[in-house]
Structure formats: structure tokens, C-alpha cells
Amino acid sequence: MLTKRVNFLFEEETLQMLRERAVLEQESVGELVRRAGKKTYENKDEARLKKIRAAHKWILANRKVFKNIDYKALINAGRKY
After folding, report:
1. pTM score, two decimals?
2. Could you tell me the superkingdom of the organism this chain comes from (predicted)?
């Protein structure tokens, strides 16, 4: 059920194109806009998280782990400059 109203401003050419498309698809201009909004923005967060997880997995698989590092000596060496 639709509960919120939104007003959009379109250029005349864009509105005419939407009206023609609405007639072809036998639905309202509003329904076209709602469908376009869902298609464009609905799953963006999921896709972004999937990319982040894949990058994290790649980093863990390819990073070099250095053991037995004397961090105190490393910090003191950095302080000399």
C-alpha cells in the first residue's frame, strides 16, 4: 500500500518519454518511477558488502605475516628521524 507522496520535476522531454513508456507497458508513470527506484537502489548495500567481503578474503589469503618482530626496536628506529 502506498503511504507517502512525492513530487518530481521532469523536463518536458523526459516526462513525454515516461508517458509513452507507461502506455506501452500499460501502467502509470508513478509505477515506472517506483520500479526504476527499486531496481536502481534496492540491492546496492548487499552488492557493496559482497565486494568488501571478497576484498577482505583476498587480503587475508595474500598478505604476508611477519613473526618475531621486535616492535620496540622498530618504534625506536622510527623515532630517530
Report:
1. 0.54
2. Bacteria
